[in-house]
């Protein structure tokens, strides 16, 4: 993972799958403070992607960034998490960068 981040060539995609704590339960500002959001911010601040010139890349690619998807759910025990994995993976496939 650190080699991919350090290369700064391709976006890194991470997935958080957990329970209430992973979802930010109890945080005053979960969108700012849950660890999945903090990880995404850290990856983009510390390991920004190299930006190619506009002549070499289209505008969509110029805006690529590292991404962390949070699929946490309250009350997630191992059994309920196992049941949700197939749904989570199919949903994630539609959100991954090409």
- The count of strands amounts to 2
State the end-to-end CA separation: 19 Å
User: Approximately how much helix is present in the residues?
Assistant: 40-55%
Major sheet description: 2 strands, parallel
- Rg over CA atoms, rounded to whole Å, is 16 Å
Indicate the proportion of strand residues. 5-15%
Helix-and-strand structural type: mainly alpha
Give the integer mean of the pLDDT values: 79
Using the alpha-carbon principal axes, give the shape. Answer: globular
Poorly predicted segments: none
The strand line-up of the biggest sheet is 1-2
SSE pattern, N- to C-terminal: HEHHHHEH
Q: Helical region count?
A: 6
Task: Give structural notes.
The protein is mostly helical and 98 residues long. It contains 6 helices and 2 strands. The chain has helices spanning 2-7, 20-23, 30-33, 35-46, 59-62, 78-93; strands spanning 13-16, 67-70. The chain has a two-stranded parallel ribbon. It is globular, with a radius of gyration of 16 Å. The two termini are 19 Å apart. The mean pLDDT is 79.
How would you briefly describe this protein structure?
This protein is mostly helical and 98 residues long. It has helices at 2-7, 20-23, 30-33, 35-46, 59-62, 78-93; strands at 13-16, 67-70. The protein is built from six helices and two strands.
